[in-house]
Amino acid sequence: MNDIELTFINDYQNMEFVDVVISQRNQKPLSGKPVYDETAIAWTVLKNCRYQQSYVFNFSTEIYMSVSVPGLATTPRTLVQYGQQWQVVQDSSGISLQQQGTTSSDDVFAVQNNMKEMPININLYRHGRLMATEEQVLPQQNATFSFDETIYMGINPGVREGDVLEAMLSNFTSQLSLSGLLKADVRLIGYQEGFQNGSMSFILTNEVKQ
Description:
Helix content is 0%, strand content 55%. The chain is mainly β. The chain folds into two domains: 4-60 and 149-209, Sandwich (Immunoglobulin-like), CATH 2.60.40; 63-144, no CATH class. Strands 6, 7, 8, 12 and 13 form a five-stranded antiparallel β-sheet that branches. Strands 5-1-18-19 form a four-stranded mixed β-sheet, with no helix packed on it. It is elongated and about 55 Å long.
């Protein structure tokens, strides 16, 4: 599947330099918390973006998964597809990630911990960067994942890619749907009609559809 090419442009005249943080949200978190209350990962960070300068980044439609048991082993990253059910079992090399049929819904993929005693950690990657994590999945628990093509964007100085972000969507000023796009510009704007004084927002422009 093709990547979606995105070009970020800082059009916010009151901020000469900005650090842009981009994340996603699992729509089916194991905790059962509302999506907005889930912690997130800083998937992509664009640092020191100058006013009226552009920065290209890609949104890959492919997701890779790796599973680990602390102190025991970590599986290689494996491409996953929606509708797949996976399991983690112990073998002679430590642990193994195996496909085990299909899920009941085509818009999710799932991982069941079939280890006898040990919890597992699940890491998900998009475009080679950590996108989401589910830690301490207990034996016989089934962790379910569903990500739509929506990105959350905000300004947050000092954050690095892979950092865990606290559960506060107030740091993310915009949600942008990339569904059906091949490429688009993402602009940071402020002091526009319809926005409060000093506020800012990310918008899509120059959209090219599939």
